[in-house]
Design brief:
Layout (H helix, E strand, L loop, with lengths): L1 H23 L23 H5 L5 E5 L8 E6 L29 H5 L4 E7 L5 E8 L22 H5 L4 E7 L12 E8 L23 E5 L4 E6 L7
Antiparallel strand pairs: 1-2, 3-4, 5-6, 7-8
Length: about 240
């Protein structure tokens, strides 16, 4: 009888142990049926379109930065994370915008809607970039500029030679009676251009070819003759 009680007790203990093992195993690898969570890494690195397409992610958008429009800053899991910082906000997040007056080049100035590029007339009939200002700044008064007179208003050889943007034109009427070559050439006018065109283009005018000799050679406009110039004033062809 004592042996039977011992055997019966052992059998009951074994059965209870087996039942306990079955109850403790939920059959899903210990996750009690809940989906695993990766701390938001699935949202990181997504494009704005892909981020907005997911219900478990949120797109972080920064409003106007340096005068620009809204910009996408990144994707995050709003259940476990905070939105990524915008440039220029928070430690290490970026560099604050420069004031418009500190922007030195035209392209960077015009790229910002909070800035305005200033322009003033130049001596060539066009305009030149003069600086960057806040868009709300009243119109800037351009300073007076001293533009040089047109070359044809230099009436003497010395005045023409003093202009780096002009060259003198001569005429030789061969009526002075001097003996050396080119001695009859006289200053005729001052023409625009630091150098003269001495290589003949296709001639499209009825003018006679100028007579030039000695240190003087024939110079040309785009399609006709200009006159005689010193060979040292010719452009390198």
């Amino acid at each position: 009888m004592r042996i039977e009680r011992i055997v019966l007790g052992f059998s009951l203990a074994f059965a209870m142990s087996a039942c306990g093992s079955i109850l403790q195993d939920p059959g899903d690898g210990g996750t009690d049926g809940a989906a695993g969570h990766d701390g938001g890494s699935a949202c990181h690195g997504l494009t704005e379109t892909a981020c907005r397409a997911r219900t478990d992610c949120a797109a972080s958008v920064c409003s106007a930065i340096c005068g620009g429009g809204p910009s996408y800053a990144g994707c995050y899991d709003p259940r476990t994370e905070i939105a990524p910082p915008c440039p220029g906000v928070g430690a290490g997040a970026g560099t604050a915008c420069l004031p418009c007056s500190a922007v030195t080049d035209e392209a960077s100035c015009t790229a910002r809607s909070d800035c305005r590029a200033n322009y003033c007339p130049n001596c060539n009939g066009g305009s030149a970039y003069t600086g960057c200002v806040d868009a709300s700044t009243p119109g800037t008064v351009c300073p007076a500029i001293a533009c040089p007179l047109p070359c044809d208003q230099a009436t003497t050889l010395d005045a023409c030679d003093a202009r780096p943007d002009c060259h003198p034109v001569f005429v030789d009427n061969r009526t002075c009676g001097c003996a050396s070559l080119g001695c009859c050439a006289k200053f005729s006018r001052c023409a625009a251009g630091a150098t003269a065109l001495c290589k003949a283009p296709p001639i499209a005018c009825d003018a006679l070819t100028p007579y030039c000799e000695g240190p003087y050679v024939v110079s040309y406009t785009n399609a006709c003759y200009e006159g005689c110039v010193r060979s040292s004033d010719c452009a390198l062809n």
